[in-house]
């Protein structure tokens, strides 16, 4: 195995209670992400924070410069940890993420964050397409209810469907406990 990076995607204030776009289970997911962050730091792995801002102040959440667009205190970045600003769903699109990872010799990604059905799905699929090996920590990710064609789909089902799809063809999908046990 080559060098590993923990990539924390969009763990930002607007997704938490009191924010503009609250996710189901976000507090528990962030607690697990914080455990994984501590383990990655202890192991000397590269830690990369990805932060989303929309280009317009009219956006429903993550408006530029807002408190809601800031990284949540549970997983704040430290000096020396790169923070990638993105304006797209895919963390690789129009960012320096791929160059950063390749420049540091990273070939294995551990992915956590929000939202399971958009940004986590996109970065995981893109990482596979770019030749990275990926592990998604399912209980360190959160989703929200969605609606399609008059049918409401609960967040738990949205999350499960995405994790099943990623596990089938794009990544290893594990719990925080299983992942941390393997790393000891």
Automatic annotation (TrEMBL):
<protein>
    <submittedName>
        <fullName>Cysteine hydrolase</fullName>
    </submittedName>
</protein>
<dbReference type="Pfam" id="PF00857">
    <property type="entry name" value="Isochorismatase"/>
</dbReference>
<dbReference type="InterPro" id="IPR036380">
    <property type="entry name" value="Isochorismatase-like_sf"/>
</dbReference>
<feature type="domain" description="Isochorismatase-like">
    <location>
        <begin position="5"/>
        <end position="148"/>
    </location>
</feature>
<dbReference type="InterPro" id="IPR050272">
    <property type="entry name" value="Isochorismatase-like_hydrls"/>
</dbReference>
<keyword id="KW-0378">Hydrolase</keyword>
<dbReference type="InterPro" id="IPR000868">
    <property type="entry name" value="Isochorismatase-like_dom"/>
</dbReference>
<dbReference type="GO" id="GO:0016787">
    <property type="term" value="F:hydrolase activity"/>
</dbReference>
